[in-house]
Design goal:
The complex is a heterodimer of chains A (283) and B (126). Chain A has 283 residues and is mainly beta. Chain A contains 4 helices and 11 strands. Chain A has one domain. In chain A, a hairpin with a 4-residue loop joins strand 5 and strand 6. The longest helix of chain A has 8 residues. Chain A is globular and about 55 Å long.
Chain lengths: 283, 126
């Protein structure tokens, strides 16, 4: 089931892009960057390891974006608001290329009939991000904004420039909470499977937006993310959504992240002096 | 800040604080007294390199007493009364903060209006 692309998505996109262009501490160099013979960052060098031998996922990461000029949005409205491109998976969670950024993959998601009807009546004016609400883990990876991973033995902490949000993935062996109070990020625990961090998440808020189309999950959803630093400069996140109440079968998407060097986060608070939402149309 | 504004702000902050999960998850490595209770005056923990370990979940040591009116929304005893300094950073200074005249006027107006950045879900300073 596919939902036609609606123009107001453009407004939701424009909300998210103001501050990355003015990132701070641009003159602070990232330490321990492997270099090529020419002295340039070697992004295909082996992934760094912690003293205990586990992969070190720490760093500032950007989602892989489709060139704006190649997208429907760019061709229709220009690229002033998104010069760095549009994250693949932000508008449609099934997208895997620039051609699919807005329309998504051909087959779409395997919705249960009731869920499909629910999604069909959703309008982008109700998008969580339009109202400056937090993003789900599924949508956080393909964000417009950089994210900083801080890894310790006990937890992986993801700091998100968007709304200065954080997400904690506990690595201390605790069990997932039973009947947790639903939250945008859910509750996450992780363990290592070789060099891959496997993250299980429950307690997601029912109806939250996985993308700009309004794709969603129920409170019964369980996410499994397999996070692997392929090399120094690239991070792969495979996300599996298992939610029988909403979908007829589990489905998986893969998001790609690239290291951002010599920069830092600067919080983007979307409701600071926010005057856009009153002008947004709902359909 | 008037009490109504405070109550609104406090209520805004309530849901996650009271319904946060893993509240039964014991903190590892807590120094204990002989009776088994946490020894908060125990030695500061150190990292492997000898530096003090500041990790942990922290809250302002000085909390507002539970307000009877506010407790209509926030039950007393759950410990989220907030810090007096959060309401007035200069509360402990005999003459308040040493503002320039323009800044004093701005604060006076804000106080009169009951405006607070948290009431519009914006960030606040450290």
């Amino acid at each position: 089931m596919r939902v036609p692309f609606k123009l107001p998505h453009v407004f939701a996109i424009s909300i998210g892009v103001a501050l990355p262009l003015s990132a701070q501490w641009l003159d602070v160099k990232t330490k321990h960057v492997p270099l090529t013979k020419e002295g340039k960052p070697n992004l295909t060098a082996p992934a760094p390891k912690l003293p205990g031998g586990k992969p070190n996922l720490s760093g500032v990461w950007n989602s892989v974006k489709a060139p704006c000029e190649e997208t429907f949005t760019g061709k229709a409205f220009g690229c002033i608001d998104s010069p760095d491109g549009i994250p693949i998976g932000f508008i449609d969670v099934t997208a895997t290329s620039a051609e699919e950024v807005e329309k998504g993959a051909k087959d779409g998601l395997p919705y249960q009939p009731a869920a499909a009807a629910f999604i069909k009546q959703r309008t982008s004016g109700n998008d969580d991000t339009v109202h400056c609400l937090p993003m789900s883990p599924v949508r956080q990876w393909p964000s417009f904004h950089p994210q900083k991973i801080v890894q310790t033995d006990e937890a992986l902490i993801i700091l998100d420039e968007y709304m200065a949000q954080y997400r904690q993935i506990f690595l201390d062996g605790r069990a997932l909470p039973k009947d947790p109070f639903p939250y945008f990020k859910g509750y996450s625990v992780g363990h290592w499977d070789g060099d891959t961090l496997v993250v299980d998440t429950v307690g997601l808020k029912e109806g939250l937006w996985l993308d700009g189309k309004g794709d969603t999950v129920s409170e019964e959803a369980r996410l499994t993310e397999r996070i692997r630093r392929q090399n120094y400069g690239n991070l792969e996140v495979q996300i599996t959504v298992n939610d029988p109440k909403t979908y007829t079968r589990p489905w998986t998407v893969t998001r790609h992240m690239q290291i951002a060097l010599d920069t830092e986060l600067i919080p983007y608070v979307c409701n600071e002096n926010e005057k856009s939402s009153q002008h947004m149309v709902s359909k | 800040m008037n009490i109504r504004t405070f109550v609104v702000i406090a209520a805004v902050g309530l849901p996650i604080a009271t319904l946060g999960q893993w509240i039964q998850c014991p903190t590892p490595g807590v120094p204990r007294k002989t009776d088994g209770t946490p020894d908060l005056a125990g030695l500061t923990p150190r990292l492997a390199d000898g530096k003090p370990d500041l990790s942990g979940i922290w809250r302002a040591a000085r909390q507002l007493p539970c307000d009877p009116e506010a407790s209509r929304f926030i039950p007393c005893g759950i410990g989220i009364g907030g810090s007096p300094q959060a309401l007035n950073f200069g509360v402990d200074m005999p003459s308040g903060l040493p503002y320039q005249p323009w800044a004093a006027e701005l604060v006076k107006q804000r106080t009169a209006d009951g405006l607070d950045r948290r009431s519009t879900c914006a960030m606040f300073a450290r």
